[in-house]
Amino acid sequence: MIPNLIEATRRYWRQLDQIEAAYRSGELSAADVDAQVQQSMAELGQARRETLRLLGAGVQHLLSQSGDLLAGAVCISLLAYLWLTVTY
């Protein structure tokens, strides 16, 4: 399952809003706010790490499956760029 980083970020901001509202109403102390914010940051960080790990695995898979094709496309693109810059 691919983590939804945008939804995780929205959830993080909703949690911060709830924490702020609880602090302003006197339901939470400053220490409780710090602890809950750290927990929310850890959850968002975990979602980000998972997304980056999956992205890296996808790139690695793409390179292993299509490495020759990608290398050829890069070479052709480089040659076309050099040809265009030299001729003009």
Summarize the structure in words:
This protein is mainly alpha-helical and 88 residues long. It has one domain. It contains two helices and no strands. It has helices at residues 5-24, 30-87. Helix 1 (5-24) packs antiparallel against helix 2. 1% of the residues are buried.
Features:
single chain, mainly alpha, about 90% helix
Which helices and strands, and how do they pair?
Layout: H1 5-24, H2 30-87
Helix pairs in contact: 1-2
Give helix % range: over 70%
Helical segment tally? Answer: 2
How many strands, which pairing sense, and closed or not: the largest β-sheet? Answer: none
Strand content: under 5%
Mean pLDDT: 92
Outline:
The protein is mainly alpha-helical. Helices cover 89% and strands 0% of the residues.
